[in-house]
Hints:
The chain is an all-alpha fold. The chain has 2 domains: 7-201, MFS general substrate transporter like domains (Growth Hormone, Chain: A, Up-down Bundle), CATH 1.20.1250; 221-403, Growth Hormone, Chain: A. It has helices spanning 7-38, 43-53, 55-58, 60-69, 77-92, 104-132, 138-156, 158-167, 169-181, 183-188, 205-221, 223-234, 237-252, 257-285, 288-312, 319-345, 352-381, 383-396. Helix 5 (77-92) runs antiparallel to helix 9 and helix 6 crosses helix 17. The radius of gyration is 21 Å and the shape is globular.
Amino acid sequence: xxxxxTPLRRRILFTALYLSEGAPIGFLWLAxxxxxxxxxxxxxxxxxxxxxxxxxWTFKFVWAxxxxxLRSSRWTLKHWVLGxxxxxxxxxxxxxxxxxHDQLSLVTPFLIVHAFAAATQDxxxxxxxxxxxxxxxxxxxxxxxxxxxxxGRAAMGGGALIMSSHIGDTAVVVLLIAVTTFSGALLxxxxxxxxxxDLSMAPSLRRRVAATWAKLGTALRQRNTQLSLLxxxxxxxxxxxxxxxxxxxxxxxxxxxxxxxxxxxxxxxGAMVAGSxxxxxxxxxxxxxxxxxxxxxFVIAMITLLALLDLAFAEKRGPHLLVxxxxxxxxxxxxxxxxxxxxxxxTIPEVAATQFSAFMGATNGCEAWSTLFIGMLIAAGGYPxxxxxxxxxxxxxxxxLAFTESV
Length: 407
């Protein structure tokens, strides 16, 4: 069955691929650090490993041009994804026989290889999606993709911690390898449509490099690229910073770790999935940029509402906080799929790996600076103050969309 042949099949394929994307993220950033700490690994060693493993995702746009250049009718984006998944699976195999705590130094190089392969897979999947889909379907498709990613993160993050107590750590690693690579079977059965960027690229490497360089120059000169990079660097500030401090915020409002874990894994993830699916449909129905603006307004309004409710109830725990946070999570789903669909619309298919990775890199950069900023604001004036200020920063990005051009 060709999973690139129809819109429904493409949704199934890219949902599965994003499930494979989300699985290693959930494992590396939640399950693995928890296992190491439970085994007595010093927290500074765990933090150092985590900081190393996040590097490939943060700077994947640096080697993304390689994915754009090293493509041909014989080695396509499809092969980049399949190759990356094979490396990801093989790099996890040492976890089946090495002891994570006592032999962490031996395992670490394999984890780094896995992280680089996973980040490269992300680059190739996004580029493939842009090259084989129509603009009219990207909103709904992004909704499905984000749902798959969130499911993968939940399954191999918190889910791995739950399963390990019943089936053991080794069985969880086997399951992780399976989840990471199963979507390759669907892709293997699929054929690139005639006229896709891969099949129309120049046969010689020199000509491909020249053509890619020229396309990148065109992309960088486009107003949409420049404004979108700035938008991605600023607009998500309110909720990117909120996602990092929501756990400490609830701790300081006297919620237990167990309550926070259940709420974030079930309610927040569920709300994000719902927002992603609904937002995908609406992003295709309404004008894309208008819906991006509307969804960001909604997120800003909900975070502001949370801040006001926190002040009104004297910074005490209560259902008012959980309802507001649930609405924020729903809004994050709405905005994320709409913004990603817009970035795809602005991306040139021949250099999609590089250009779209740059948009994602700007988003990651927003998370970095806004998290640092909100920490200082909370220390100076409390949670509500920090939330409201970051909402104001996000709002400053909204006028940028008015200057983008229709595609």
